[in-house]
Automatic annotation (TrEMBL):
Organism the protein comes from: Desulfarculus baarsii (strain ATCC 33931 / DSM 2075 / LMG 7858 / VKM B-1802 / 2st14)
Family the entry assigns: Belongs to the TRAP transporter small permease family.
InterPro entries hit by this protein: DctQ, TRAP_DctQ
Membrane-spanning ranges: 12-34, 40-60, 86-110, 130-153
Lineage: Bacteria, Pseudomonadati, Thermodesulfobacteriota, Desulfarculia, Desulfarculales
The protein, known as: Tripartite ATP-independent periplasmic transporter DctQ
Amino acid sequence: MLERLTSLVSRLFSIAAGAALVLMMALTCLDAILRDINMPLVGINESVTYLGALVLGFSLPMTQRRGGQVGVELLSRKLTGRPAEALAVLVSLVSLILCAVTAWQCWAYAGELKASGEVSMNLGLPVHLVTQAIAVSFGALCLVILNQMVAAIGRLAAK
């Protein structure tokens, strides 16, 4: 059940990241075309910056699920069997804690931004929405890490 939920959530965030990337490219191309006829888009830098943040944030769950992140494996390559699985559980636990704290702090910061009424300079977009979206994506990343940790614990118990 946890595996299916993790798969669904990762896929949804991956689709959202792809949509944000396509929108970012479309806006950039449109702005380049419109600049040629002296009609640049207002707030394009803000839009591309926010979309870039969403692309990065939303791609985290699927990247973790597929093991696409950069890792230092000097120790884990030399380990096999129970020690390797124990290390996987430990790394998952530390990662889960760090990502959960990051999600919590992003959410808290978004609350501060919302309370202050902070908006973007050119378009007047509420800044807290992007920060909340990043917090939710870190929550989804926590779900993926939890699923991987449960699997590692199962492998450890089986050995």
